[in-house]
């Protein structure tokens, strides 16, 4: 049965393969980096096969950030390991380079075509595969099993919505999940959903969320200090990780808040780089003076909007704001990382669509660290209440920081689970690889 299911799945992928070219072209018109490195996406490599690697796959920026504590710990404790971090998006690639430079190898993960997956595994020769969160690619998982590569899902999460979306592939995915050493779930709910999808309950365990273990980058404190020195006592709110269908709402919310606080500054950090220019123009068209991180570096007293058109600095700019709206939540994207603003003591507001972070959102709301608006008007009302009440903001900030601190520990539990499959330490005469 497995051979039949894999054959049908792979045949469908080969039939649909030409669409991937159109997808890359379409994305390339919006983000030029999609025009580059196509060979990697189809498992074609021009250098010699690599020495054995420990491979971490993180699809994009959020997953790379989640993987950061794990990668940093491996680099610190095992400098002899050759680490490979794969992504799918160019923004994920850029985040890998921003975090580790040439200290790790990076490649785009190929499409889940049997030939491409086989070439990828043969070229990089992973000794251990650590797949972040919800990247469930059957041919990839079967390929690891067939080559004797121990594979884990790390920081695993699976929403009810995603579980429903996998319904058609469940017979195949259930078999693929049984190839894994362990599924390390963020929560009991995630573990139960993975078991419903077909993972072995015996090898599905709750290790917690690695995002709690993210260390605050010292650069974040420097950004906040410099911003505060230049901005003075001017009130600030941030709209972070917003999507295209939320942009009109951000403009309307800022207009409403400005009516009460004319000196208010909006710091705006769109989720996708291709929207940087568009939101800058939209804010200018609204009649406001706009500064950008790349062009002016900092806002000044005459600016109503400051667009963060860079990557990797979001936590620092969260720390500059009294209140934060975290996007992907006014449209059914499922929300984005709520722990980053909590970790730096920023009061948080979201929309109602939080299925990607349902457990964390519920815990934060119960702890008094999160407010949820039913729609754009509700979000505006929550932000207005926070900007007007320093004591409320302080209480939310304290609750958020405490929750982050209490949630730590997933990193040590994860390291303990994968320890038996880490390659033996290199001998004294071996050269550390990319330490």
**CATH superfamily of the largest domain, called what?**
3-Deoxy-D-manno-octulosonic-acid transferase, N-terminal domain
Query: Rounded to an integer, what's the Rg over CA atoms?
Result: 22 Å
Specify the helix fraction band: 40-55%
CA distance, first residue to last residue:
44 Å
CATH-derived architecture of the largest domain: 3-Layer(aba) Sandwich
Q: How many discrete structural domains?
A: 2
| Unreliably modeled segments | 429-435
| Structural class by SSE content | alpha/beta
Count of runs of 4 or more consecutive helical residues: 18
What is the CATH topology descriptor of the largest domain?
Answer: Rossmann fold
Count of DSSP strands? 14
On the 0 to 100 scale, the average pLDDT is 94
Categorize the overall geometry: globular
Strand content: 5-15%
CATH class of the largest domain: Alpha Beta
Widest β-sheet, arrangement of strands: 3-2-1-4-5-6-7
The biggest beta sheet, please?
7 strands, parallel
Oligomer: single chain
Characterise the protein shown here.
By secondary structure, this protein is of the alpha/beta class. The protein folds into 2 domains: 2-207, Rossmann fold (3-Layer(aba) Sandwich); 218-407, Rossmann fold, CATH 3.40.50. Helices cover 47% and strands 15% of the residues. The strands form 2 sheets. A 7-stranded parallel beta sheet has the order 3-2-1-4-5-6-7, with helices on both faces. The protein has a 7-stranded parallel beta sheet with strand order 10-11-9-8-12-13-14. β2 (83-87), α4 and β3 form a beta-alpha-beta unit. α11 (247-260) packs parallel to α16. The longest helix has 29 residues, at 2-30. The protein is globular and about 65 Å long. It starts with a helix and ends in a 17-residue tail after the last helix.
């Amino acid at each position: 049965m497995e051979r039949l299911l894999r054959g049908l799945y792979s045949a469908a992928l080969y039939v649909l393969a030409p669409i991937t070219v159109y997808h890359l072209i379409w994305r390339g018109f919006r983000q030029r980096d999609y025009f580059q490195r196509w060979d990697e996406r189809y498992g074609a490599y021009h250098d010699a096969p690599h020495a054995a690697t420990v491979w971490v796959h993180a699809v994009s920026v959020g997953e790379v950030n989640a993987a950061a504590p794990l990668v940093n710990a491996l680099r610190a404790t095992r400098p002899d390991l050759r680490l490979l971090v794969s992504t799918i998006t160019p923004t994920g690639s850029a985040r890998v380079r921003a975090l580790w430079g040439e200290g790790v190898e990076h490649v785009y993960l190929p499409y889940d075509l049997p030939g491409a997956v086989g070439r990828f595994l043969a070229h990089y020769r992973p000794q251990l595969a650590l797949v972040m969160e919800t990247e469930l690619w059957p041919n990839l998982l079967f390929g690891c099993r067939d080559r004797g590569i121990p594979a884990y899902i790390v920081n695993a999460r699976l929403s009810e919505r995603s579980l429903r979306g996998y319904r058609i592939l469940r017979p195949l995915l259930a078999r693929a999940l049984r190839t894994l050493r362990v599924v390390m779930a963020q929560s009991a709910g995630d573990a139960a959903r993975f078991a419903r999808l077909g993972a072995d309950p015996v090898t599905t365990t709750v290790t917690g969320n690695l995002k709690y273990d993210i260390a605050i980058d010292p650069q974040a404190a420097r950004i906040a200090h410099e911003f505060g020195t230049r901005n003075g006592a001017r009130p600030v709110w941030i709209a972070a990780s917003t999507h295209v269908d939320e942009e009109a709402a951000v403009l309307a919310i800022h207009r409403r808040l400005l009516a009460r606080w004319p000196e208010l500054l909006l710091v705006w950090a769109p989720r996708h780089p291709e929207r940087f220019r568009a939101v800058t123009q939209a804010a200018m068209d609204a009649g406001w003076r706009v500064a950008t991180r790349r062009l002016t570096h900092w806002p000044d007293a005459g600016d109503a909007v400051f667009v963060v058109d860079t990557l990797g600095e979001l936590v620092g700019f969260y720390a500059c704001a009294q209140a934060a709206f975290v996007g992907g939540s006014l449209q059914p994207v499922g929300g984005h990382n709520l722990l980053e603003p909590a970790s730096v003591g920023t009061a948080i507001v979201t929309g109602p669509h939080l299925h990607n972070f349902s457990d964390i959102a519920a815990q934060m709301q119960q702890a008094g660290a999160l407010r949820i608006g039913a729609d754009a008007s509700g979000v505006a009302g929550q932000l207005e209440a926070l900007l007007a009440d320093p004591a409320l903001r302080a209480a939310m900030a304290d609750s958020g920081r405490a929750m982050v601190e209490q949630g730590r520990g997933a990193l040590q539990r994860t390291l303990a689970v994968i320890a038996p499959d880490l390659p033996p330490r290199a001998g004294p005469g071996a050269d550390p690889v990319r330490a």
